[in-house]
Design brief:
alpha/beta, 2 domains, five-stranded parallel beta sheet, binds calcium ion
Length: about 230
């Protein structure tokens, strides 16, 4: 579990990071909102701990940007401001929880566990791998924030690969689960290969990081790691 802490007080930030790491979480610190926002755009985090009073952009600004960019990770505000207005504003802007400083570390941990259990907003309708995103409700695909248009079959194929990311998917599995054909004919393999080629052209070709790999003689795998 990757947790990002946006907190400008170094001592507090360091204590949080150490405490979380002792609990087995991976934690990163950003000492400003700008730094934090950049980190969020570079890689996915499972949870954000957000201070409100920050130099430059406030925690509220960061929160607005996060939700505006459709980042769906749970956000826990950790702030010295302990008044109802701030709590209401924070929650209305899309924070999932609000804990006032000073706080008891076990309480913070308990709240983190609750948020991680709940997962991100709409966990069942949104699939992600690196900067590739797929929304099952609106049936859109984005890479690096840019929308990619797929045919229905290409979408179903990508969805299946996303659901099985980092695992090898055989042509047999695709025949059965995506095309829903029980008997695999040799022409099926060609059909699958044509769709894989088109999909690769759309989701991978314009980008440096390749996600859709062919495993010779076996099938395909969707992963940000190179497959040998
Ligand atoms: Ca602060």
């Amino acid at each position: 579990m990757q947790i990002l802490i946006i907190e400008d007080e170094e001592k507090v930030a360091r204590a949080l990071k150490e405490g979380l790491e002792q609990q087995g979480y991976a934690a990163e610190v950003a000492l400003s909102g700008e730094d934090g926002f950049n980190r969020l755009q570079k890689k996915p985090f499972d949870l954000l701990i957000l201070d409100l009073m920050l130099p430059g952009h406030s925690g509220f600004d960061i929160l607005k940007n996060i939700r505006h960019e459709d980042m769906r990770l749970p956000v826990l505000i950790l702030s010295a401001r302990d008044n109802t207005d701030d709590k209401v504003t924070g929650l209305d802007l899309g924070a999932d929880d609000y804990l006032a400083k000073p706080f008891a570390f076990p309480e913070l941990l308990a709240r983190i566990r609750v948020l991680l259990r709940r997962g991100n907003h709409f966990p069942d309708t949104h699939l992600q791998l690196a900067d590739l995103e797929l929304d099952l409700v609106d049936r859109f695909v984005k890479r690096s924030g840019t929308r990619i248009f797929l045919t229905n079959r290409e979408f179903d194929l990508l969805k299946y690969l996303m659901e099985n990311q980092h695992q090898i998917v055989s042509r047999e599995m695709l025949t059965k689960d995506v095309w829903q054909v029980t008997n695999r004919f040799s022409s099926m393999d060609n059909l699958i290969d044509v769709h894989i080629t088109r999909l690769r052209h759309k989701i991978d070709e314009p980008f440096d990081l390749k996600l859709l790999h062919t495993v010779r003689g076996v099938g395909f795998v969707l992963s940000e790691k190179e497959v040998s």
